[in-house]
Every structure is written in C-alpha cells, then in structure tokens.
C-alpha cells in the first residue's frame, strides 16, 4: 500500500521562547511525507511551490523515498510562507505573517504514479481543493483521512460539509470539534460528526493528547510529558503522518489498528517538538520509535484491585 | 488504617449551562469524606461550620461512617458559602459570591479518636492552618497529602513553602504547578516541586486527566470522556478523596499503588460531575466503581507492533 498526501509544502519562520529560525522548510505535507519515510512507508505529495523553493529541499524528500512528482513548481511564483511566535505556554501562538502565494490558486494534479494510492491524507486546505482531489482520483481510495480547521468552518461551511461527508477519518482539535458539532461534550460532538460521515473521529488536544471515537467506543492517549518542548510546529502534521503511515503499513483500518496508529503518531510527534521544524523528525531511528512507544506503554499502564 | 481530612464543609450555590441549585451541601472535606465512605474507608473530618449547618447534613456524614467529632459548630456563626457560575465549556467559571464566614478564623481541633490516622489529607486552606494541623498531631502521619492553589502562592508564599516541605504528595493543577515552580514544562515543574519536599507530584488537568511524577517516573491518565458533564463542582476533591482512600485501603504508598489510586480517584470524580453537588457521589455502588475502572482500562489499553 501507499499513501497519497495533499497539503502545503512551505517555508516557516518560527519564534519560540527558546529561539527563532529564519525561513526553514515546513508545511503539512512535508511533515507528513517525512513521517511516512521514517515509518518506511511509500508516499507521494501533491502540492505546489514557487520558483524560490530550493532543489536541496526537493532532494531531501526524494532521497527519503517521498514521491515528489505531484509537487508542481510555478517558476514565477513564491512558495507559501508562514511566520509565527509561540507564547510561553507553547500551546498558543500569534501568526505574524501569512503569505499564501502560489497556494492561493492551488490546482492539485495527481501523478499517474500515485493514482493507485490506497490511503489518501488530505492536509488542511480549502475543502473545495480537498474535494477536487477526490474527484481527480480514478478510484476512490480505501481510506480518506481529512484534516481541517475552524477557518473553513467560518468561511466555507457547505463545501466543508460535502468534504466531511466523503471522509472516513477526520482529525480536528477539541475546539474545532465543538464548533463543527455545536456540542460542548466531546462525546456528543463525536456522535454528531459521525453522523456527518466520518466513521472515525480523532480529536487532537496538543499537550493533552488525543481521543479516538468510533461506533460508541473511545480511546484516549495522553501526550508524552516532555522535559523540553522546543517548537510545536508540525506536531499535528507529524501525528497525522505517523497515524496514516501505520495504517498503510498494517493494511487494516479497524478500531484496534487505529488505536495503535494513534500511538505511533503521538510518538513521532513527540520527537518533532524537540527541535525546530523538521530537524528532529529527519533524524529518528526505528530503535528510537520503539523506545518511545514503550514509554507510552509505561506512561499509561496500571493495575487496580478494588 | 484511617484517613484524616482537613478542609471546608460548606454550602455551594451552583449554576451550570444545564441548571442551577439553591444552597446545597458542599466543601472539599465533604466530597473527600463521602469518597472515603464510598470506598469503605474510615475517615474523620476536621472543619468548622456555623449554627446554620443542618443536622441532616451532619447525620448524612455520620451515617456513612465519617467521623464528624472534629467538625466544630460555632452556633453564632455562619457556614462558609460559595456561589459560582460555570461557562459553557464547563472548564472555567466565575465566582459570584464567597462568604468565608466561620472559616475565617478556623482553628482546627483534632479529636483524640483521629490522632492515630495514618494518612492526612490537607484540603485547600491557608497553608498556616494546614501547618497547624501537622503540629497538633501527636505523631506525624505516615503520609501527608496536600491540596493547595495559586491564591496561597500569591498571598502566603513563605508559609506555603514550609507546608510544602513537610508534604509527601502534593496535588495541584497544571497552571499552579507552573506558578509554583516557575517552569513551563510540567516535567521540569515536577522536578522543582520534588526538590521543595514532595516525593509525589500529582498534576490535575480537569477534563484532560492527571499526571503523577515520582523519581523521574511519570504516569498519565486521561479523564473519561463523558457524554454529560453536568456540574464539575467537587470533582477535584472527589479525586483527592478517592486517591487517598485507595492508599489507606492498600496501606502502601509506592508509585505503583499511587498509579492505581489515581485511577480510583478519577473514576469517582467521573461520577461526581454527572449530577449537581454530592448527589451522584452519594449513590455510587461498588459494582459501578469496578465497571468504571474497567472503562478506564478500555480507554487506555493498546498494542503496537512497529
């Protein structure tokens, strides 16, 4: 199996309480592709960049087995750029600059080499763009995973609803789940979102972990408490990438496998936040992943006799 | 073994998005005592109430095996009263009224019948009052559990530090842990708090669960996602009461037992929030507790093969 990723390939400039970066490689699809490569899963990215995008960054992806045929280069355009400053709690941030650039008129093109991808991960983009990807695929993928955000709920509700109705797994944060459903209780929110289409609802809670809802069942995983959260950028995308990659690897999409996939996603995300940008993600070894998964086991295992 | 509880016995008037109450029985020590009774653990409360405190409420505690000899009644005084309104997210609230009343000059008196308590749970009060309890005990209890809050960090830092230095287990929320330690990372915060005295640091995160830190080890438990969070009042106190009661029952204070105790506390707290005030807590059966603990197991158990 292989994973098709649609999302931004971008530049970020990040400021945290611990330091700041110049323009560095970022974007949801970048983190997802790198996470797939760490998991030894074949992936391909559909995205668009400008003439300013360095060959070096494209090589990085290719060398790690990420198919970049679907990354269109618009020579006269500029790559999407985001700049943000994290607050001291590292859980909130101010956006300083958003230059949408070539992403504004993003018209996704799926290369033939990726038409047979069984798992499609739609990174956070305009839901109309996400829908167009589904339409451009010759066969519907076996699993469609959707990432979205409150911005599209505010500005593109109807088309978002259509996209959600065609989704198998949706990943959103707790506030977005509440906004999407109009329910405060996350259990009730998940029920309403199930009714909109997705069989699986993943609610991301950042430093508080994640929840998975499916047919009245729920799984919860805390985030690994880390001594040093250096830079949260890309953590959510790494999570999604690790999650999807595990499913591709196991070729199974049931609740139990999704639970494991969430652990893998959380484990990978816990690396990403240790350094700026994609720096740490690129270095991860299989031994480190196993060790971190064991830490999650230790973190959450208990026995009670009452 | 038995549990000595020092804390408020009070009236609350509560408003949530789902309804409101008149003055009802509340106070940290009340929730803790009731949690102990649910766990079949002998407990006694040291507190103070006014002449307005109904005999009926005192009977309720006595009938459930909570020793009330240490609850002083100041006939001419009025019982502590708190009134608050929860926001829609049920995670934040506004205090509408705080009438400290007889609690203002609370001078705890430990009845002889409770001098031999092996576990002391000091509910959230002025740290000077908490310290005076320790001084009034003929023998230091085997385990001292401290609940405190940011208010005392702002107003009584030095005496709080003295109290903390004499504490075995401290329970605070995440923001308080950050304030107490001056560290944003909860791992670092726990380390600094260990150095202040407590061997065990419990960080309560409300709807996001709790963390337990001990000698470089960490345990994390999510809260049980509930369809209906009706009224969060007393959840933290129920948690502390269930936690302490389990330790009393097991007569063991090591990391593994504390992990189990946190599950029990979380399970009991998940009942408390289902109805107003102490209503649900009073009804819990042993079968329900076992069932809820099994739910926590289901909620958090996973297998991963990478």
UniProtKB/TrEMBL annotation, chains A, B:
Transferase in keyword set: yes
Alphabetical list of Pfam families matching this protein: PfkB
Limits of the Carbohydrate kinase PfkB domain: 3-279
InterPro entries in alphabetical order: Carboh/pur_kinase_PfkB_CS, PfkB_dom, Ribokinase-like
Annotated SUPFAM superfamilies: Ribokinase-like
GO molecular function annotation: kinase activity
GO cellular component: cytosol
Keywords: Kinase, Transferase
Superkingdom, taxonomy of origin: Bacteria
PANTHER family cross-referenced by the UniProt entry: RIBOKINASE, SUGAR KINASE
The name this protein goes by in its record: Sugar kinase
Organism: Chryseobacterium lacus
């Amino acid at each position: 199996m292989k994973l098709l990723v649609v999302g931004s390939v971008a530049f970020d400039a990040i400021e945290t309480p611990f330091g700041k970066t110049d323009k560095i490689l970022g974007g949801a699809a970048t983190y997802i592709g790198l996470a797939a490569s760490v998991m030894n899963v074949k992936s391909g990215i559909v995205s668009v960049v400008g003439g300013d995008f360095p060959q070096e960054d494209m090589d990085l992806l290719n060398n790690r087995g990420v198919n970049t045929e679907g990354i269109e280069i618009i020579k006269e355009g500029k790559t999407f750029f985001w700049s943000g400053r994290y607050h001291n709690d590292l859980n909130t941030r101010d956006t300083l600059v958003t230059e949408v650039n070539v992403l504004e008129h993003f018209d996704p093109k799926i290369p033939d080499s990726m038409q047979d991808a069984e798992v499609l991960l739609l990174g956070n983009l305009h839901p109309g763009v996400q829908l167009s990807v589904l339409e451009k695929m010759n066969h519907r993928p076996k699993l469609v995973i959707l990432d979205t955000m409150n911005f599209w709920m505010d500005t593109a509700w109807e088309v978002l609803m259509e996209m959600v109705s065609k989704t198998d797994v949706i990943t959103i944060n707790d506030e977005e789940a509440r906004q999407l459903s109009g329910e405060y209780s996350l259990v009730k929110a998940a029920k309403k979102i199930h009714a909109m289409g997705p069989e699986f609802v993943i609610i991301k809670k950042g430093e508080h972990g994640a929840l998975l809802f499916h047919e009245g069942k729920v799984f919860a995983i805390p985030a690994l408490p880390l001594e040093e959260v250096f830079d949260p950028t890309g953590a959510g995308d790494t999570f999604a990438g690790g999650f999807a990659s595990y499913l591709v690897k196991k070729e199974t999409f049931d609740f139990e496998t999704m639970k494991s996939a969430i652990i893998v996603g959380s484990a990978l995300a816990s690396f990403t936040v240790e350094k700026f940008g994609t720096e740490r993600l690129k270095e991860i070894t299989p031994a480190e992943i196993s060790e971190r998964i064991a830490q999650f086991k230790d973190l959450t295992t208990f026995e009670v006799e009452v």
